[in-house]
Fold each of these.
Amino acid sequence: MSESAPAPTTPTATTAGPAGPSLKLRRLAIDTYRENVAYLNRDCDVYRAEGFQALSKVEVRTNGRRILATLNVVDDPGLVGCGEVGLSQDAFAQLGVEDGHPAYVSQAEPPESIPALFRKLDGERLGQGDFDAIIRDIAQHRYSKIELTAFVVASNRSELDREEVYFLTEAMVKTGRRLDWRQPVVVDKHCIGGIPGNRTSMLVVPIVAAYGLVFPKTSSRAITSPAGTADTMEVLARVELPFDRLTDIVRQHHGCLAWGGTADLSPADDVLISVERPLSIDSPGQMVASILSKKIAAGATHLVLDIPIGPTAKVRSMPEAQRLRRLFEYVASRMRLSLDVVITDGRQPIGRGIGPVLEARDVMQVLQNDPEAPQDLRQKSLRLAGRLIECHPDVRGGEGYAIARDILESGRALTQMNAIIEAQGACGFDYQNPPLGALSFEARATEAGVVTSIDNLQIARIARLAGAPHVQGAGVDLLRKLGEPVAPGDVLYRVHAGFGADLEFARQACQRSQGVQIGAVGAVPHVFVES
Amino acid sequence: MSESAPAPTTPTATTAGPAGPSLKLRRLAIDTYRENVAYLNRDCDVYRAEGFQALSKVEVRTNGRRILATLNVVDDPGLVGCGEVGLSQDAFAQLGVEDGHPAYVSQAEPPESIPALFRKLDGERLGQGDFDAIIRDIAQHRYSKIELTAFVVASNRSELDREEVYFLTEAMVKTGRRLDWRQPVVVDKHCIGGIPGNRTSMLVVPIVAAYGLVFPKTSSRAITSPAGTADTMEVLARVELPFDRLTDIVRQHHGCLAWGGTADLSPADDVLISVERPLSIDSPGQMVASILSKKIAAGATHLVLDIPIGPTAKVRSMPEAQRLRRLFEYVASRMRLSLDVVITDGRQPIGRGIGPVLEARDVMQVLQNDPEAPQDLRQKSLRLAGRLIECHPDVRGGEGYAIARDILESGRALTQMNAIIEAQGACGFDYQNPPLGALSFEARATEAGVVTSIDNLQIARIARLAGAPHVQGAGVDLLRKLGEPVAPGDVLYRVHAGFGADLEFARQACQRSQGVQIGAVGAVPHVFVES
């Protein structure tokens, strides 16, 4: 494989010559996380001459590189003296020089795209050049938190029309690395999220890769959920792999299941997420741009997208799902990505386990054709794998499912998965003796009836409080699913934790609401999706 | 006068008992401006036990007080050792204890109003309790920059209905100090801004105070303009006065012209402005809440509000002005504030001078009844003063203007102004020899005709580049106004600066666009406002 020239991100070479006197760089052992901080002494000539203010943005240049940093003003020459510029740890590391190296400090130029941002705040429609400029500035960390949030909120809800979503997606692809696998068909799958236990990728990848299609699957870790695919795969194998190693594995085994964080695909998306997450913003436009930009940057030519609907899923009605589908399809078609949207049943978690170890157990049960395997996870995975196999030019529409089932039932999927696990670095997981958290409690039915609802959000919350995904063996093991009969005292689910405090938090949440309702058979909600 | 009990702002007494081990406070000589920063050593037990992350919000408690701070993690025990918590300068000062005092550090509780904020982000209408909670959290500095920006942008444009604007205004008044002058009539005036040179307050206050009405005028400094009333008044007298001194002056002279920054009126507004300003957000709802909350907190019972309209004013059409007027009137009436909106001619700057010294000269010319005085400034000030005088129960509608003119022409306004200047602390300004910036250049007409437009924004920009308001004597002196005839080579305006670099910046801006257009008599735009 090869990659197209990545767009420059900070630090970049600067063309501006040094201005003003140089200062001596000083590394301060202060960790300011992702925010670069520069420290200047208040009596320093540069500080006085430039009319800086604390918290203003400055540019620090040295060694042909430049970084932007927030300014803090120091009154203690022991910390930072006149003639010095202190830098927080990460900021210092980005410059690649030694302590004491000369550097130049100046006011940072305001980002070029600010006028476009202001027009968006005024409710205007933006053009392609505007989005290119905004996303470039964001990827280069030129936006302040204020500007970043303003962009995210002003683009929230229905503020972006579908052509703007296309411009945004295109701009996000342009700013990052773009992979080219030199294959006519490179498949990928993605779910918009929100359904606990939904680990279909770990079944779809080995099935489809066993069929021979190239499937370089990179996943995220859990952000607000009890486990992401990367967290669950990590129970079985290493997922943080050097980029070159990843491409070797894909070349040899057609697929991988790795963490996507090291690939620098769509870097603007990572910056935007840092604001969207604390605000719980997940608007259709931003979701489409975020998902499609990452998949296209990763080199996918064919994508199957899973949109689950249900009362506690992200999408709660069929009309809403159809609107979202059309937006995904419009942008994918503009980007020349072949997209197949599958609307699925999101009324309850998929499989039984929720949490890395529990979900890994479910996946391995399916791959082993174990009679105990959760059938909903198996069925859904075969359906998605079938759709992907139909991307192969030799396969007719409707034949994919049977091919996928044969691959699974013959054990070829398991063989393929084991090869991928070995290649990434196996962790020696025994699915029949999963290393669950040693502490546990059970949630029980208090009345007779059938399970009429399982709240995805509450079950996910309980699993997180129990320690997932940080504690791999923590989580929720669902023993009853929708429509199943229960008697008073029956165990609905078991909660596993690694630490007493976690168990207690989970128990309290469970006491407030256990997330499972019991009622009459007729009260089970229906969902009309293709099965 | 007295004040009602101020709502608590941080630091506040805490009811929660100390939890976990105490740390020794250490003052770090780092100025982080308005953002409190706490520094913990990475090896510190508290840091490890609480699972903190750099940039997360922590609460530091000691001495019955608590502050919120952003966490930075330190790897150098020389800076902050295990068992210590470092604080930035302002944060340390807020706790009112000595170095080495024991303090407790814990994760900050998320602000209570976050669910309401999320509902606003989803496009919902909020209730009074929601606004109270949001504004209380904002005034107590509990919102992160991200949350603050999200609130501002989600309330931008037409996102707030008029009842929500009332709730917002009411909430902003509740969080701050509210003055009570123990007078049936306390007058104030305000202009929504955007017109350079518009220093009517410095004429209206002495005229109306001379009539005997209480007029405790506090003003802001320039934010994005070349001079605010506080900047211009500072040419004549001290404007930063202790709060008690201010009230003495008002009691004795009925009026004052001071900077409002020390009064802690509507503290949430100051926090919101810190986000609105860099985003140039000035939506009707936020403008109304910001202006009315400050005036009501300052104890005004009667307010005259100036809304200028013109092609380069904030408000560009009469329908827009009328919509804004109705919103101001609705909220004022809910708040029981008597409001008189005056829509004025905003086609060009008011007076001749733009910049602190130049504007002070204009004001003094009018007060001195100097034949050179700019007539538009005189006329507009008399008109506004007349409206305010009519707030007096003994004055009939329509009589105010003549009373104001008599007070001005008789010299009583000048006497009153001089008394206020003396009381605040005179600076010895001689309006006939104003201390203008020593460097200057002139913008000249290149063709014959009449002045058909003067761009408020461009003239303001040139005055700021020339150094106003920071350099008091810098600015623009307009020698030709709308409709006046000019011949090629005539001076349109003179730019004054204190420093060569500033003069050069101003000259370049002037060369790009001098902001004054010459054309035929018929091309002068009309404006239909009451005169």
Amino acid sequence: MQITPFLKKDANVPIYLQLYQFFREEIEKGSIITGEKLPSIRELSQSLNISRNTVDTAYQQLIAEGYVVSREKSGLFVLELDDVPMVQEVQHELKLPHVEGKTDNLIDFQYGDIELERFPIKVWKKCLLGAVDAPSHEVFSYGDKKGHYGLRTEIASYLYQARGVRCSPDQIILTAGTQTAVNLLIQLLSLQNEKVALEDPGYDGVRYVFESQKCEVVPISLDEDGINITELEQSSAQCVYVTPSHQFPIGMILPVQKRMKLLQWAGKNQTYIIEDDYDGEFRYLGQPIPSLKSLDTNEKVIYLGTFSKAFLPAARVTYIVLPEPLVEVYQSKLFYISQTVSQHIQEALYRFMKEGHFGRHIRKMRKIYQGKQAALLKAIECQLGDKVNVIGQKAGLHLLLELKGLDAKQLVEKAEEFGIRIYLTEKFWLKKPPQFDQPIMLGFGGLSVEQIESGVNQLARVMKVCEINQKIGEMKS
Amino acid sequence: MQITPFLKKDANVPIYLQLYQFFREEIEKGSIITGEKLPSIRELSQSLNISRNTVDTAYQQLIAEGYVVSREKSGLFVLELDDVPMVQEVQHELKLPHVEGKTDNLIDFQYGDIELERFPIKVWKKCLLGAVDAPSHEVFSYGDKKGHYGLRTEIASYLYQARGVRCSPDQIILTAGTQTAVNLLIQLLSLQNEKVALEDPGYDGVRYVFESQKCEVVPISLDEDGINITELEQSSAQCVYVTPSHQFPIGMILPVQKRMKLLQWAGKNQTYIIEDDYDGEFRYLGQPIPSLKSLDTNEKVIYLGTFSKAFLPAARVTYIVLPEPLVEVYQSKLFYISQTVSQHIQEALYRFMKEGHFGRHIRKMRKIYQGKQAALLKAIECQLGDKVNVIGQKAGLHLLLELKGLDAKQLVEKAEEFGIRIYLTEKFWLKKPPQFDQPIMLGFGGLSVEQIESGVNQLARVMKVCEINQKIGEMKS
């Protein structure tokens, strides 16, 4: 293959990103076709006069996003592209359906729902059947306490490619959901009766677990760019739980400088960081920022990932990556803990990953979700532009809306009457600021573009009703 | 159908048991054939001049064991019997294969393994596929926090028929394994830093969970017939965890008088009993004793059941039955806890139960395990009769062997050299009695009759070797 990427060495965009974008566009345009082999790292670094590392980084990103696959000893090959709507395609003019009053078809902006129509149900069924047929005795027994070894191997290799996390399968422990994982970490790190710092606002489901285990939860407020490091330093916490790739629920991405400070904090105080990378797969804007774990030279970061967002909430599979020194502590202290994920699900997921379906699925879903998010943003801009500010649009499967002047609770209630379910966010705050105006949460993973558009359109009507009601209320009083 | 059971009203055996045994034998002999309808309760109670309750109890037992099925408004019908080896059939003469030294084929008497060859793999695959195909949105999402409602309904009805437990699906919570269930109960009952009484010896996997949650574990010793109630009364514990249907690991069955005392203790002290009925399905000797929960009029018993023994360890499904008053406490206190069992496994299990496969499976497995146990007992009697005492043969999937004079650790090590894996039991004891001689544990669920026979035969050789070694050791010293 002759390739001639036009690389601007003095541009703001790093070379590896330019190279990555070049290949991605060529593949998407069809200039480089399915099955074609990419030039070797050596060839390309020589012909472009750039370092091998730069080429490798670009290639790793292409692998992680499912554009190419690496075949042992033969090189990188371009994968088939699915017929996925591009972001541009959905930015057509908004239809304005005539909807009056309450509708029977509730449009539910529930966070946590995923796209089901394009879920690879046939492949998943094949994997499940294969799992039950697997000759391995283990598949029918309690199995490995840390989880299916093959699956842990697949996860380790995925994490290296996609998130820059270097770990061995021995460092990985599978659990039935993130709450189960956090419960286990509280035992492992002996956090009972100790101070644990949490982002405020943050994920309430995890906060309750810390509280139920008698941890003293210390809320740390957020700056524009994420967790306030000074407050953290003053907290004398033994451990911090953070969502740096996509702060939940606000959505900022922690810049690399702050990541380094966080790591310094942990190194200096001999404390641990729990990095919950719950939806790191779905990043739409800006260039990739390395995960905290990939920057962790002091073995102080415990990484959490989940298949709930990237694949299937119904699978209930979360994974913990322990720093090397904690593996032994785990084995001597928590040896008795049985595996909580069904062996059949583990074996099926192993097959799904091993056969390359997972990488492709992630890539496909990233486009689909990006398309949905674009539709949502466009609809919000057209319909609600003057009434809200959008928060957290760089990544993930939800947005927050800051309301200008409207009362959040009234809006949510009224929306329900009109067949639109949207969500309050106050439960995510532990310390509410004075004169707290909570934003509204819209999850879009489970809705079609049509539902999103029709939902926002309807929401605009609801807002008008609320405005009028509020004015009437003011006139009366 | 004309039926003429010969009931001895003055016999020691209660009428309902005689009636149950009559039907069971007639069905097994083929005198009453598949699809035939049993007489209605009214008819039979009139014709035999016995109470309707008596007939109903006998019929419930037949349903629970899968001999008949109840079809709404039409009555009870006889189910097809599988081609299952009867207990008698396996009591043939023992083969004595010539085995020398170490063998490549390890025979592993691991407790927790189940019979796989007769596992209904086709049906289970059908249920799994059906689950993934299910139109329900819930099957692909996080689902009901307490678990799949249909599955909870099936469990409620199974528990009524099989264990006399009356509960509504609302009282049932599904969890990924028993440790997860106990963890949840510790939160629910606020047992952290409180005294919790455990049978000693008992199930170590649960003891570790209590300890890790900072409960003060109080070991209660066992009498011949189960937990020592006086010690329990003196313990001032807030809660007791017991295995009354088949004490783990010793195997005694708590007599009904002691069950009543246990319930009185809980009623008087406003404490809770956690009844772990982990293998209540597999009872071979003696008449059924009602579960603690079925006798609980004070709402003080929390019942735990699992599909790990009765169905499949790989499913990782345990269920909690809460007393009615605790349901509200659960909802207000633990509302945040996500379901830990995969939706796909839950839906598949629901289908498996709803279509009647579960009841049949239990009945089939009871016979298979009974056959295996009979083979094991026979082999032990023939081969090791003078060297061991058998403990706990009334129920379950394991036996203990008390050694006469041999050292348990040496035996286990030497057996491993000879290709036989047997298990020490000291880990089940918290307070070891002075001059403690631990029994050996043999699980037989996962082994074939041939493996059992060959394993015990080999064990006899190992014991001889150990005896000789011990004598040599004595002579030397």
